[in-house]
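Q: My collaborator sent me two sequences in one message, no labels, and asked for predicted structures for both. Can we handle them in order? The first one she listed is below.
A: Yes, handling them in the order given. First sequence, followed by its structure tokens:
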Amino acid sequence: MIPDEKYMRMALRIAEKARGRTSPNPMVGAVIVKNGRVIASGYHRKAGEPHAEANALMRAGSSAKGSTLYVTLEPCSHTNKRTPPCCPLVVETGIKRVVVAMIDPNPNVSGDGIRRLRKEGIQVTTGVLESEAKKLNEAFVKHVSSRMPFVTLKLAQTLDGKIATSSGESKWITGEQARKEGHKLRDSHDAILVGINTVLSDDPSLTTRVPGGKDPVRVIVDSSLRIPLNARVLTQKSPARTVLATLSGSTRKIGKLRKSGAEVIRARSKNGRVDLRDLMRKLGRMGIMSILIEGGSEVNASALKAGIVDKVVLFVAPILMTGSDSICSVGGSSPLRLAHAVRLRDLSCSKVGDDLMIEGYTRYPGTRAE
């Protein structure tokens, strides 16, 4: 492995520490190397706190002069944010060379940071482990370039594609380790989305059971506002918001829901249901950068049909449910032609306990949404 890749991989691993904590900012890691030795490192911990470069340079102190800075994202140059720009700090500390994984897709930066550094006589190398950096920040890339959230569809099913028996029993198809991974997904996303049928049948909490974890914003798709006022998503103690997406509902009930702390937003109608693409636009404008769908069969089908899903995470248990009356993981009607089926790309597979965890993209990661 060449030195640039070695140190950039280190910066990517450091950036990963802040997964789920930096939204609406990206995860960024920085490593400072001098005479072939790492003298300091840092990462962006949380929105509003110092950036990775600033943290690393503060630790390096005067030793930073004449060194090389490895950073996973182009140093920022704009001032319309809560923290000062990093480019002037890099220049002031006497950094000799900067190695960047990816150019910032934010229109406020988009190469300007690199231009400013070069103008000050600093040598800049770009594109080192660029694809890995884009994948790390796939949610940020989509949101900052399209204002739409990055959507992950999570499924837990049997080998023959079932999520429940004909009577509706589904606990638990996958094992404990797979369920823990599911909670890690909740912790790493800004929001979790389910349909009203999931709320009515399971009365879930939609919280994150991860030590030190955070609860995601709870988004309930409820076209006719059938949610009970005593549903757990409305009554539990949690700092996370609950957002109800609806088409209609009495003014009185909306008032009661808002009094309970819930937010009610009206979305466009499509075939008598909430238009999920319109809902994604609204949630994106609310600053929600990533969404995890943990819906039932019909919500899963609607999300795929609407074309809002970017990534699929599929947990598969070594079970054969059998029976045409059991419930499939994706409902709706099938396409007439195989060519119209959703095809996943860039697949990866790992074993989680006794189950398989398969990840794939409906479009290549890091690309702009349509």
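Q: And the one she listed second?
A: Here it is, processed independently of the first:
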Amino acid sequence: MSDDSTLREMAANRGCKLVKSRIRTPDKSGYGKFGLRDAKSGKAVFGLTRDKPSASAEEIETFLRGGATADWRRSLGKTKPHTEPKPAKKRAESKPAPKPPEPKLAIRAARAADAAAIAALITQLGYEVEAADVRSRMKGLSVLVATKGELVGAATTSITKVLHRPKPVGRISMLVVTEQQRGGGIGRALVEAAEDRLRKAGCGLVEVTSNVRRLRAHAFYRRLGYERTSYRFARNLGD
């Protein structure tokens, strides 16, 4: 067993201060007991009960020689304490890619390359026509098309000189918008472009021809300020 001086030296080497019981009577409780405090902070380290020495010399020596001092130092922060790893930051949820901007509406004169798309539109009016026929007929007509990333509408205009009016009469003889795009202002834009073209050509009046069964088309033209002014009669002359 180590003596007091050996214990003090061992304690000092481990950063501790040896505390010995002040009781000098062998038959009293606490006699010959020891404890350890941290040399710098004075905090109890081992063998102190209610701040009084309570460990034997053998227990103090065992503590100082064993691995318990390492645990004590960690508890006081003399060695870097084990820390739980910080939880990984949650990866930001990927946002869905923004939708590409909707193509802008544009009105322009038709081109020969538009024939197939115009033919497809005309079939939505109930007429069967081939792209080659459309391409051929476009040469003698004024045709406007609406594009919105793709061709979505078309209108044809013509000009007639008449004896009973001082200015030529302009006519919108066909107006069609693809079914998926109807109600979005494309028809109105085509009519306004047609009116502007006819006005610049010297027309004083614009007429619209529309089959009697196309009631929705009639309501559309009325919303644009058109009035029913006459009856239109037709007769098929055969082949």
